[in-house]
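Here comes my example:
=====
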Amino acid sequence: MKNVFNYFELQSLFELKQKEGIYLELKTLKTFHAIVRTGSFNRAAEELNYAQSTVTMQIQKLEANLGVELLERGKGISLTEAGRLFYEQSLRIVKDMERLHSSLADLQSGEAGSVRIGATDPTASYRLPVILRKFMSQFPKMELSVDISGSGALCERLLHGELDLVLCSAPELGKELYFEPLFTEPFVLLMPEEHPLASEVRITADHLRGHRLLITAPHCPYRKKLESVLQESAGPPLDTMEINSMSALKFYVESGLGIALVPEVTLHPVPAGTVFRKLEGQAVDMTCGIACRMADYPLNPASRSLYQFLKQELAGLPVL
């Protein structure tokens, strides 16, 4: 065999062998490295728990595939010029392949991966940050992105494959989505502390008429739920002011612009100069949960890890 090569000749040789369809197995490379490290076929076989004949066969096949002699046999083992170049370059290959195998194993086990999650407020702002901090400490190799919007917009993105999971209220019927209810978001009536309703012992939907009610946008599920409750009470039309942000409602109440039904979780602390009361009668609380595409079942390992974690963390919240 030809034993004397310059660097560029060997580079061309290895590229040619790759084009011929000759690929190197990781275990063969590790065997070659063990021989170089220990200086012996016998010690390499012992280290790798192989029979010596297996080690010899692997190296012979490797040299035959490459068409070069890598090791000089004699009283000891030494590298040929080709062997030295091959050893130096294959060290990086082995490290890269080991990292790749480790990454693939993490992906398969759900320890690593990329998950795109959508969430509606108040969950996105008041519950999710703490949950995701715990999740990332347990799954440090995971990559997450969070999209915050309304339930309708997030469910549409989910249907188009732009998101993997969505924390939201129940999606509309007929959509190809699976929804698992997880908890109930309680709502309370927030008002300025000098408001006439602040002195009422029991407040029902009937009491809201005659007072300016701050409401969210028409497409908001919370508003739709509120409207269904108010439709059951007779009386003059409601005096409303539309605020297209659930999180902003409490600040408008604080400024004295009206009263609003807001998620109780957003009132820690209660805005200065305001008080909140429970609304009697039919509950305006919203059921929230996780949505995903039916087409994505079974979920990939990374999404499944986050799904199970969210269920576990939100399980302590009440469900009506």
Residues 214 and 241 are 5 Å apart (CA to CA). The chain has ten helices and twelve strands.
